[in-house]
Amino acid sequence: MAASTSGDKAADDSLYPIAVLIDELKNEDIQLRLNSIKKLSTIALALGEERTRTELIPFLTETIYDEDEVLLALAEQLGNFTPLVGGPDYAMYLIPPLESLATVEETVVRDKAVESLRIVAAQHSAQDLEVHVVPTLQRLVSGDWFTSRTSACGLFSVCYPRVSAAVKAELRNNFRQLCQDETPMVRRAAAGKLGEFAKVVELEYLKSDLIPMFVQMAQDDQDSVRLLAVEACVSIAQLLPQDDVEHSVMPTLRQCVNDSSWRVRYMVAEKFTDLQKAVGPEITKTDLVPAFQYLLKDTEAEVRASAATKVTEFCSNLEKSSQEQIIMTSILPYVKELVADPNQHVKSALASVIMGLSPILGRTNTIEHLLQLFLLQLKDEWPEVRLNIISTLDCINDVIGIQQLSQSLLPAIVELAEDSKWRVRLAIIEYMPLLAGQLGQEYFNQKLRDLCFNWLNDHVYAIREAATLNMKKIVQTFGTQWAETNIINQILVMYKNSNYLHRMTCLFCINALADVVGADIIKRLFLPTIKVLSTDPVANVRFNVAKTLQKLSPFLDQAAIDEHVKPILEKLNTDTDVDVKYFASEAMVGIAAA
Fold first, then answer.
1. H or E segment and range at residue 281
2. pLDDT tens digit string along 282-334?
3. Does residue 444 sit in helix, strand or coil?
4. Candidates 1.25.10.10, 3.30.428.10, 1.10.3720.10, 2.130.10.10; correct CATH number of 493-593?
5. What's the predicted TM-score (pTM) here?
């Protein structure tokens, strides 16, 4: 009797995971249901491979009706389930639940189910693929609802390479069927997967079967289908020999460049440099250059902006022998028009890449043709345009040299240093150490030093912070002696300023410069200033004194610490303000530990 009871108990224990799962999946609380789905792998391990195949998977297949969030988690889990059902030999058990999930209404769930189906399909042997996965694909293709037909599109490229010639022919027919489907969503899904499918189809069938599908889709009455055909165009052009590209792909591409929908033309512009690499130099010269001109003067700003971002990359990919001539005669006139484009986004897009033309065209062309364009953009009314030009100044500096740069562009740069938009001022600050190093001490002292001091008093904190780092970098460039003669006294004088923020900036500068000026300047010039600021009426200043002293102490010998640093910290440690006391004691502990 006892033995029988223990046998029943063992049976009960083995049923326990499934029972708990059933309870949790029926619970009204979505979070509980979601958690139980995320624990599926643990439940599968508890059940073992056989019971996972015979009990868990059928149960999941039957109960697929829930919130999208739960279904999404399930679709994701099942993609990693192959080891839990017994490995690749049993991967076919995962197909039924994933097939059901691939037909639901919610797109993200379907996409995740297809992603998992692709993973599981790849784990099947070639024989199992034909027996289990291909029939699933064909059921999805002939499904009544468009949802199953859109999901089918994602499975062709996984199945096709590993099946027999007869099945391959069926799959090509199935794909053609989807390309001609009456529902635009299905045609869109097929167009989106056409390039991927093209990569696994044999060249003869690519020409005989897939290119007609591509041509047909590029003429679809829905622009959402046509624009995806442009993406497929890149993949197909990469796979075809040059002669075939000319007569199979180019007529369709020319048609897309002139498409009535701006979204299709925008997609051509987005993919333009990929197309350029795919079609090769000859077709680029005869076809893509005129097409690029057309896109650069498109009626829609979005298309012009997208084409503008491709200007430098397109030009650098041109064949070297004719590169300069094509740019100067066929591209630059259009670029000049874009500099004065009525749309700020177009000008901004161009400004982010136009400097890159300088190294391609060389010094003479840059000075004669590009400098005036850069100047116009540096003075543009839109801050984004000015910012994009400043951010890429180093491209041109390497080509024309600092003398030419300082004569032509520097007045505009100085003007931007006081720009009303703080992000523009920030970009100029970040460029300043590079400028300083290239212009030399004398030029910097005459033209740029005062700008750097003005930034220290800026009303925007981010500018003041960047300005202190800028000072440190410039001292690294010009050396300690220059710093003492030209900037340190003017920085230290800020401790007398009536605005406590400027007194704080004085401390921040001392912090930043401590790394580069050496112990002598710290002891001789910085410590007396800090001592005065330690009695500042504003608590924020006093606790920054404590933090600064901790930062300076590694650069000082013990005698200086005992004589100058410790007395100030001890006094601050008895301060009435709790924050000041905290930072003073932190600093004392930090210095003692060091």
1. helix 281-283
2. 888 888 888 898 999 888 999 999 999 998 888 888 888 888 888 888 888 88
3. helix
4. 1.25.10.10
5. 0.67
